[in-house]
Design goal:
By secondary structure, the chain is mainly α. It folds into 2 domains: 6-51; 63-96, no CATH class. It has helices at 2-18, 22-43, 46-61, 71-74; strands at 87-90, 93-96. The protein has a two-stranded antiparallel sheet with strand order 1-2. InterPro entries: Cyt_B5-like_heme/steroid_sf. It comes from Cuscuta campestris. This is Cytochrome b5 heme-binding domain-containing protein. Keywords: Membrane, Transmembrane, Transmembrane helix. The chain crosses the membrane at residues 14-34.
């Protein structure tokens, strides 16, 4: 009874505003929703990409634990030797910046 009270005005409104039968209208609406979801997942959400990009940047900025290095010892990691990492100290934290070579 309640469904009938809602369904009849809905089908009449669909026909009045669109000129389509309710079956055609709901079929087109469902196909549009499915197409949107498929294309969205094929192309990937931009939020997902930005999350991955921010996570990679955060991983690159993490300080490495080498221990206490003096300024003289840190000079040995200035990038002149390609076998050693390139280290940079900022405010007491030592960062590996080798990936930006």
């Amino acid at each position: 009874m309640v469904c009938s009270n809602l369904w009849t005005p809905l089908t009449e409104a669909v026909f009045y505003y669109t000129g389509l039968s309710p079956t055609a209208f709901f079929t087109i609406a469902a196909l549009m929703a499915v197409t949107y979801k498929v294309v969205y997942h094929m192309l990937g959400g931009t939020d997902d990409y930005m999350y991955v990009k921010k996570a990679e940047e955060a991983a690159r900025r993490k300080p490495i634990q080498i221990g206490d290095l003096t300024a003289a010892e840190l000079l040995g990691f200035n990038g002149s030797d390609p076998k050693k990492p390139l280290l940079m100290a900022i405010r007491g934290q030592i960062y590996d910046v080798s990936s930006s070579r």
